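Go through this chain for my students:
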Amino acid sequence: MPYAQVDHNKFVFVGRLDENKGIEFLLRVWGKCKGKQLVIFGTGRLEKQVQKAALETPNIIFKGFQNHESVLKELRTAEAMIFPSECYEGFPMALIESFAVGTPVICTDLGNPTDIVRSARAGYCFRRGDEKDFCNKLHLVCGSPTLHKAARSAYEKCYTPECNYQILKQIYDKVCEENHA
């Protein structure tokens, strides 16, 4: 999708609505993000809290559970995906799906998402729980077509099914070589 079709004031959260996913932090800080819209997809224990925040805060839109294509459609036109997880995440598919549609990521500086986003140069990482650092990173991502291109490029270079097949095949071949030596 061309960068010109991105809504530069729209950000998306996709995930479980639970304490360890950082949704409470996001709801708290988003009230300070004037002019920026947050679209939230997901369900979970904090769903009522998210619904309440959406009713009270005009720049928060709660979509709840939606099918995969609806989420990708919204993500495709967003300035960035917000991934404020407060727990260690192994390999979150939400990041890769964001990259696949050319959308950069703003995530906490915790665990593998940090390495994924930084190595791709397709977004920014903020200090967990640091509202000021989050707001700074939010402003840095705005209006940067380079980050969108980097996100899509990272997906094409590292995360397509073909790339993963080649990586797995190389690992398999190496194990076979070592066992036959």
